[in-house]
Design goal:
The complex is a heterodimer of chains A (166) and B (779).
Chain A lengths: L1 H15 L1 H14 L23 E3 L14 H5 L5 E7 L5 E9 L8 H5 L5 E3 L14 E2 L1 H22 L4
Antiparallel strand pairs in A: 1-4, 2-3, 3-5
Chain B lengths: L1 E5 L2 E5 L5 H7 L23 E4 L6 E2 L10 E3 L3 H14 L17 H9 L22 E3 L9 H10 L4 E4 L6 E4 L12 H5 L5 E3 L12 E6 L8 E7 L2 E7 L12 H5 L14 E4 L2 E4 L2 H18 L5 E5 L5 H13 L5 E2 L23 H6 L2 E5 L3 H4 L3 H10 L3 E6 L11 E4 L5 H8 L11 H15 L4 E5 L1 H4 L4 H15 L2 E4 L6 H7 L19 H6 L4 E5 L3 H4 L3 H10 L2 E6 L4 H6 L2 E4 L8 E4 L5 E4 L12 H11 L10 H13 L26 E5 L13 H6 L6 E4 L1 H6 L7 E5 L4 E8 L7 E5 L14 E4 L1
Parallel strand pairs in B: 1-5, 15-16, 15-22, 17-18, 17-20, 18-19, 20-21, 22-23, 23-24, 27-31, 28-30
Antiparallel strand pairs in B: 1-2, 3-4, 3-5, 6-9, 7-8, 10-11, 11-12, 13-14, 13-24, 25-26, 29-30, 29-32
The chains are: A alpha+beta (166), B alpha/beta (779).
Chain lengths: 166, 779
């Protein structure tokens, strides 16, 4: 008797396309839900405060470089992407004469930022960048400082947001 | 002997030893700052506190002598607590600027605060700041970082012999500084950089250039004096960043002279020659090595055919490596001439036949330290061999007396028992008086004769006597007479004799055969060639110079310049090119300096010391031995097909081992044949190389040149002579010789003996000086 009932239910489901309707019902549900697809590149997905993108060098408010050429970032870099040369500047302070980051080698691990005692080298939220020619992968000090200048406002906000975690 | 226990290890120690010495010998580490094994004990940092059983307080390990049955713990809770507390005090005023401090990464305070400090400080007040000051071209000061261990002060007093630094004020205001605003004047001052445990005293030329962990270290030898101090060259990416000392008890101990430490600044100088350089009808042109060697050998062959091989002379720098000297000897002899020499600073060669195989001193630095009487004859030892003064100071510490006979009253950084200063013309007579030799012209004052006899009597009473001779002797017009007299004196006093020879490798040059009367291993040649000075006086047609700048390196540079200017072919192998060189040279081949090549240097004690290249030869330079080999090959000289420097070394040592002249050990000229020349009425010329201008590399080190005080174009005379010639101090004068005259500034000094004109060589102003009479003319 029980077997008979099971068989009849199966036949009804088969002929009414029940499973299909069940599936379409889910589609129907999503039809009325809010959309999450964004129109890249016109629109972008939000990123975390801790996102590790392009690197940059920061300045103090008076415009002087923060970097003191201690070379801790160079030492800690697991990909050996950073090359620094330094000397005594005219005012007697310790300054870099060369600060290159090879973006092909860089793995965006952020250890340089952690090692930096003066918050000079930082990772920015910038994730969209490209190079057209060989050699452009080397971010020189001038380029890195320029990136820092462009994003200084964002970086300050980000660093103050993250301070509790560090 | 007493038995003690440190950290459970039972140890034997001799009574009176300090705990830290016993622990160091047993490889048990106790933290320390003020304790240094080469300096006296101050016990003022308190970092080495250890827990000694049955003692209420922890005791400083550096100042506590061991006694029988002592139970010491260096790692008990009490010891660690004491060490941590001391560290907290030391860090109160120490700034947290390790990222910009050059000591960072090799700092004793940094290391010990990691190992023996708390993780936080209870100090919340303001840290103190101490002013920095300029103490010279070698050392930067950052006195805020100072922890007042007083190592630098004790170094000045005990090792350098010049106490420049001291502690002033008390308590929180205490400061290490020079007493008056002066620079540190010792020529051993670079060692302060090494012994300062923190970043208070650091190297100035190295300031902010690199970090210690990224430098590669290569063991080498500093070839600027005949001691050959052991060094480490610190490099990164084909650039030399600094030089630090390498511990070698037999040679330099742990110290270095400033000359050895800062000469590296001259290696990558802008005057380095990048490629072989040729003089042609339309001016100077660069050539590649292949063309350069073919052309050089062709020109050389033409010149030899045109004139005779006798018209060729080869002069090599005594700072060359043993291998270079050997190959140079082989090359010059193969050209068919015996005119080869390295003795560019000597003028009396009349005893060369009687000289031993090499001028190696038959003694060691240890012998000098254990002597109880030391006689210094004709040497400014503090300038010639700054590191040997440390040995002399330690001999004085053991009760030795130092006697000095000099042609000028040089300042020494050690105490002298007695000294005699006479005009250099009278030096041979003075030595003869000491050795009781008669038949003298008798020009010496009675007082001086008596003094000389009394010095001899005092030395005769000493158990172990050392005689040290230097530049004023070998540069002397009658050096051979003096050498014979010294041998006599040595026999009479049963003393040991030390020759401070010219250059870094004079011994090597004698052994390799870079002398006109003998070839490799003392083998006598058929006919004697000309010595360096004679070959310049003879005005030959062809000169081959290796590693020297004759205008600055030779004893009478004017003679050399005249000869080179008239010669038809001058081949120069030199690391540098100068304006003057373009005037006399026809071909300049660039060679590598000591940091870029491997080689062997034999020092005054006869020990063979090897170097290895720290960087590749810069530009298109080649190591000297390669240039000589290739030149030999392009001249078709047999047996020059070496693959490596090691092969050359092997060959020359094989020759040396088979020599039958190895027992040629002493001068055997008799004193009977000596002639004493009387003092003339003319001004007696006394020449000296400033300590930081001894060779082409040191002359180009900017830091060394800033520290060079003697290299100013000054002529020094005695006040009495100045009165006689009615000259005043600071006046512009002109020194007139037969063919040339050169302007100098006059300096009237008491320390110059009468009838003497003392001028520096190795500088531009005196590069025309020739042998012969000299007169002072007013400007």
């Amino acid at each position: 008797m029980k077997g008979m009932f099971k068989y009849m239910l199966f036949c009804v489901k088969c002929f009414t396309l029940w499973e299909l309707l069940k599936g379409l019902f889910i589609t129907l549900k999503y039809l009325f839900k809010p959309k999450i697809t964004i129109q890249y590149p016109e629109a972008k997905t939000p990123i975390s405060d801790r996102f590790r993108g392009l690197l940059a060098l920061r300045r103090y408010e008076d415009g002087s470089e923060r970097c003191i050429a201690c070379k801790l970032c160079e030492y800690v870099c697991p990909a050996r992407a950073i090359v620094i040369e330094s000397k005594q500047s005219e005012d007697g302070s310790r300054r870099t004469t060369k600060y290159d980051i090879d973006m092909f080698k860089c793995i965006n691990c952020g250890l340089c930022e952690e090692a930096c005692p003066v918050d000079a080298v930082v990772v920015t939220p910038v994730q969209h960048y490209h190079m057209q020619e060989r050699g452009e992968n080397i971010m020189t000090k001038e380029k890195l400082l320029k990136v820092g200048d462009m994003y200084e406002h964002d970086l300050q906000k980000r660093i103050s947001n993250n301070n509790g975690d560090r | 002997m007493v038995k003690i226990v440190i950290d459970g290890h039972e140890l034997q120690a001799s009574a009176g030893d300090m705990i830290i010495e016993v622990a160091d010998a047993a490889d048990i580490y106790i933290p320390r700052f003020c304790y240094h094994k080469k300096l006296s004990i101050a016990a003022n940092c308190r970092m080495c506190l250890v827990d000694v059983a049955n003692n209420g307080k922890s005791l400083p390990a550096c100042a506590t002598p061991v006694v029988e049955g002592m139970q010491i713990s260096t790692k008990s809770a009490k010891a660690l607590y004491s060490q941590r507390s001391v560290m907290e005090f030391l860090l109160i005023n120490h700034p947290l600027d390790c990222p910009i401090c050059d000591q960072g990464g090799e700092c004793e305070l940094q290391d010990l605060s990691m190992g023996y400090g708390w993780d936080s400080s209870k100090f919340t007040e303001e840290k103190r700041v101490v002013a920095d000051y300029n103490i010279g071209p070698f050392i930067t000061t950052n006195m805020t970082r100072c922890i007042h261990c007083t190592r630098c002060i004790r170094f000045g007093k005990e090792i350098a012999g010049v106490q420049d630094l001291g502690l002033i004020n008390r308590g929180d205001d205490v400061e290490v500084r020079t007493y008056v605003d002066e620079t540190v004047k010792s020529n051993l001052s670079g060692n302060l950089i090494d012994i300062c445990p923190v970043g208070a005293l650091n190297s100035k030329p190295y300031a902010f250039q690199a970090r210690s962990w990224e430098l590669k270290s290569t063991a080498s030898i500093a070839p600027h004096d005949c001691l050959g101090a052991n060094i480490f060259l610190h490099t990164r990416e084909q650039k030399i960043f600094r030089v630090v000392s390498k511990d070698n008890q037999q040679v330099n101990d742990i110290w270095l002279s400033d000359r050895d430490r800062f000469s590296y600044l001259g290696i990558q100088h802008s005057e380095r020659l990048p490629k072989p350089y040729f003089k042609e009808s339309n001016g100077w042109i660069e050539k590649n090595w292949h063309d350069a060697l073919t052309l050089t050998s062709a020109k050389l062959k033409i010149n030899i055919d045109k004139y005779t091989p006798k018209q060729v002379a080869g002069i090599i720098s005594p700072n060359s490596t043993f291998e270079e000297l050997y190959l140079f000897n082989k090359l010059i002899r193969a050209l068919g001439t015996n005119n080869i020499d390295h003795r560019i600073r000597e003028q009396d060669f009349s005893d060369q036949e009687f000289q031993p195989l090499s001028p190696t001193s038959m003694m060691s630095a240890d012998d000098l330290q254990t002597s109880d009487g030391i006689l210094i004859v004709g040497s400014n030892i503090g300038v010639e061999q700054p590191l040997l003064t440390i040995d002399i100071k330690s001999a004085i510490g053991n009760g030795a007396k130092i006697y000095v006979i000099n042609p000028i009253d040089h300042k020494f950084n050690f105490d002298i028992a007695e000294k005699i200063i006479v005009n250099s013309a009278l030096l041979p007579q003075l030595l003869a008086v000491m050795g009781q030799y008669d038949g003298l012209p008798g020009e010496l004052a009675n007082s001086i004769v008596n003094e000389a006899r009394s010095i001899f009597a005092s030395l005769a009473n000493c158990k172990k006597v050392s005689i040290v001779t230097g530049a004023h002797l070998y540069q002397h017009k009658h050096a051979s007479t003096m050498r014979v007299l010294l041998i006599e004196l040595q026999k009479q006093l049963s003393a040991k004799l030390m020759y401070l020879t010219q250059g870094a490798n004079s011994t090597g040059a004698w052994l390799a055969g870079c002398i006109p009367h003998r070839t490799t291993a003392g083998e006598i040649v058929s006919s004697n060639g000309l010595s360096a000075l004679d070959s310049f006086k003879e005005n030959l047609q062809t000169y081959i110079l290796f590693g020297i700048e004759p205008e600055l390196d030779c004893l009478y540079p004017g003679n050399a310049m005249n000869a080179l200017k008239q010669a038809s072919l001058v081949i120069v192998c030199s690391p540098y090119i100068t304006e003057q060189m373009l005037g006399y040279a026809d071909i300049v081949l660039p060679i590598a300096t000591f940091a870029e090549t491997d080689g062997t240097y034999i020092n005054l004690f006869g020990s063979k010391q090897k170097t290895s290249p720290a960087i590749l030869p810069i530009y298109d330079c080649k190591p000297g031995w390669e240039v000589l080999r290739d030149l030999g090959n392009s001249l078709d000289i047999a047996g020059m097909e070496y693959q490596s420097n090691q092969e050359v070394y092997q060959e020359v040592t094989d020759v040396l081992q088979q020599t039958k002249y190895s027992n040629r050990s002493n001068l055997n000229k008799t004193t009977k044949s000596l002639k004493f020349v009387s003092q003339s009425a003319d001004l007696n010329l006394l020449l000296e190389w400033p300590e930081n201008s001894v060779d082409c590399i040191t002359r180009r080190s900017y830091a060394l040149q800033q520290a060079n005080t003697f290299s100013k174009p000054l002529a020094y005379i005695n006040p009495e002579d100045a009165d006689r010639l009615s000259l005043i101090d600071g006046e512009q004068i002109i020194l007139v010789q037969q063919v040339c005259e050169f302007p100098l500034t006059l300096s009237v000094e008491q320390y110059v003996p009468k009838n003497c004109l003392y001028i520096p060589l190795g500088i531009e102003a005196t590069s025309n000086l020739t042998e012969g009479k000299i007169e002072i003319k007013k400007c």
